[in-house]
Design a protein that fits this description.
It is built from no helices and 9 strands. Strands 1, 2, 3, 4, 5, 6, 7, 8 and 9 form a 9-stranded antiparallel β-sheet that branches.
Length: about 110
Amino acid sequence: MTDTHFPVTPSGAPEIDRPAPDRIVSGDPEHRTWLLEERDGLYAGIWESTPGAWRVIYDEWEYCRILSGRSILHPEDGDPFAVGPGDSFVLRPGFRGVWEVVETTRKDFVIRI
């Protein structure tokens, strides 16, 4: 029988990366990702970033829920919105703007490519 659920608590060493240098707006943010599931164009896991801001361009759907910290998303075509613990939102393909981490932010996410 195949497992039908998995824990959402990160374990093991995360993948560590940073935004591309040409996308950084401010700071020196470091990202940590614990990928919990990857299957058929679907990715789920936990992501965390230290403070900083960088330009983002989404080609995929992403649902996320903020677990801790504070961030502000600055869409190119709209008003900025702040997110914090307990906030959930969807970023659609075509979203462009700046993701600003004000306080180290951790989220769980599901991405559909």
